[in-house]
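Hey, I was hoping to borrow your eyes for a little while. No rush at all, and the record is pasted right below.
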Amino acid sequence: MPPPSDPWAPPGPPSGEGPGRGRGWLFAVGVVSALVLTGIVATVVVLAMRTDGTTPTAASPAATRSAAPRAVPAPGSPTPTPTATPTPTPAVTPASTTSPTAAPQAPLPTAPTQPAPAPGPDRSLKTNALYGVDLGKASVSCDLKVRRPKPPLADKKLQPYLTDVVDCLTKVFEGPLAAQGFTLEQPKVQTYHKRVETPCGDFGQSGSPAYYCSGTRTIYWPDTVDDGREAYTFARLGYVGLVAHEFGHHLQKTTGMLDAYAMAHEKATSKGGSKKEGYALSRRLELQAQCFEGVFLHATAKDLDVSSKDRRELKAWHSYTGDEDPPDDRKPDHGSSKSQFGWLDRGLDSGDFADCNTWTASASKVG
């Protein structure tokens, strides 16, 4: 979810890593709250500069005067009698006032040719290498105790438990992503009371139940959201599901999709661009994170004892979080309740990242 400045909104790039001017972005993205939601995002584009040097050309030596050719008599002609020719006195040439010609220089040595670096994994939105990750071969399991949000955890126990959930997510995804060329670093978790300042903006207790900031690769969690006012507390998998959604944004950052999204969003909304197109891109980003949440629940279904009852509770949770729900000023940037649960259910059914490609889905699927 977003910082108070509403980074998803098209009016110009926010500071930090949101779709920003220059070439840097900061992202804060969060899951939908039953109250208010929005989101931001982070990236840095580094410009590389190449300088070309020329090797000095060796100076050409001065031309040597050629002797005049001697006539060769034709065959049968009388041999002429040579006559003495006085040797002319050489004229004295005054010393030149110009600088002497520089001696030729050998070409400067050149560095040995280096082989071109091997291409990295595809980091685009539509054909990202993440879609080729095979979780079926993952043998890592999670020894994670599922903790229902009601009654809520004591604030001092909240951060350690959320960190345990992140540990589990990292263990499940780290190896398979490495096989595709991605290095997955574990994101941090920070709970906070009242307000917290981040590179992505200042977050309060109202708004979203959680935020992911790409600038610090941290999931920020207000410590009162589990006290009964948020929709996710309806579900046994409330804590796990919400962390998994925010971790989904971390996967987008790790695989380059969050950066690619920021560039596409800036292009769509800058210079009088379309708010409608900007919101459509935001929905694709958020619904993909929903699907990633489902992929994780599929991979850990046995360890976490995911049941049909859990699925019904997840559906009930998201019936309160759609763009069509109150408040009336809610931005259409996370998708309808139907779309949110639909993409989560899609990932939960298949357990395949390839089924989470919201960037190629029809507009009706990401409404």
User: Anything to note?
Assistant: The chain is about 30% helix and 10% strand. Helices lie at 155-179, 238-254, 257-269, 275-299, 301-304, 308-318, 337-350. Residues 155-179 form the longest helix (25 residues).
